[in-house]
Design a protein that fits this description.
Radius of gyration: 18 Å
Distance between the termini: 50 Å
Strand order of the largest sheet: 4-3-2-1-9-8-7-6-5
Order of helices and strands: HHHEEEEHHEEEEE
Number of strands: 9
Oligomer: single chain
Strand content: 25-35%
Helix content: 10-25%
Number of helices: 5
């Protein structure tokens, strides 16, 4: 049977860490490197601005330093798909919960994970002595698993396209977020990593997928929201996956 890209098995346990998705990762791709050239991220080091690069902002900061040991971080997850009789099934609404304990340093934490509940439960973690917030990696890994299965795709190919997109296609802009009645400074990261891919005709419309990440240093764990969204040419929705920080636990 013909397949979009070479399909490979995926692990059922999500034990990935931020380093596995870091934009600075230079591991060779399983397929030819196909991201479009000429589209660059707003790299603060290169341009001398105060706007950080996407990779530094999302993967290199000690995001867990402002989480109190003994506390719980809760993220509300939702997924819906407009693909009729598609593999995603009915809309899904669930939560990802982190139980926070001290790490070996002042900026790191030991994190126990409950990723979804009941029959939706996905094995994940634990993460020990983590300075960064693993929720971004968990979100991306779960998204990758679903997308690779839908497209019968090599997940490493898709993963490398996303990482390359973070290096070369992401835009980072200052933004404001509302947290417990206050307005805080944050950053918005946005990219479309699959545009220009030579396998576009095999991506079934998912080449237009837009990834949007919002972070704010004063929010516990710093991650405010994560989203992967794919629209049809007529404006209908193929897929929206979203994760939002639940402020009630902080």
């Amino acid at each position: 049977m013909r397949r979009s890209i070479l399909a490979v098995a995926l692990s059922t346990a999500l034990v990935t860490t931020p380093s596995a998705w870091a934009a600075s990762d230079t591991a060779p791709a399983a397929a030819p490197d196909t991201a479009a050239q000429g589209s660059t991220s707003k790299d603060s080091a290169a341009k001398g601005s105060t706007v950080p690069s996407a990779g530094d902002l999302l993967f290199e900061q000690p995001q867990m330093k402002n989480t109190a040991p003994g506390s719980t971080l809760t993220y509300d997850y939702s997924r819906r798909s407009g693909i009729e009789r598609g593999p995603y099934g009915p809309p899904l609404n669930d939560t990802i919960k982190f139980t926070i304990e001290p790490g070996k340093s002042a900026e790191s934490r030991d994190i126990r994970v409950q990723m979804f509940s009941g029959g939706n439960r996905v094995p994940a973690g634990p993460f020990n002595d983590m300075p960064g917030n693993p929720v971004l990696s968990l979100f991306l890994e779960n998204h990758l698993k679903g997308l690779a299965g839908l497209l019968e795709a090599n997940p490493r190919y898709i993963k490398n396209a996303i990482r390359k997109g973070l290096r070369e296609k992401a835009t980072v802009t200052p933004t404001q977020v509302t947290f417990k009645g206050r307005t805080l400074k944050g950053f918005r990261v946005e990219m479309q990593p699959f545009l220009g891919d030579p396998l576009t005709e095999r991506m079934r419309g998912f080449e237009t997928t837009t990834y949007t990440f919002v972070v704010a240093p004063e929010v516990p764990g710093e991650v405010v929201s994560l989203q992967a969204r794919t629209l049809k040419p007529d404006g209908g929705e193929l897929l929206e996956e979203r994760l939002d920080y639940d402020q009630k636990d902080s």
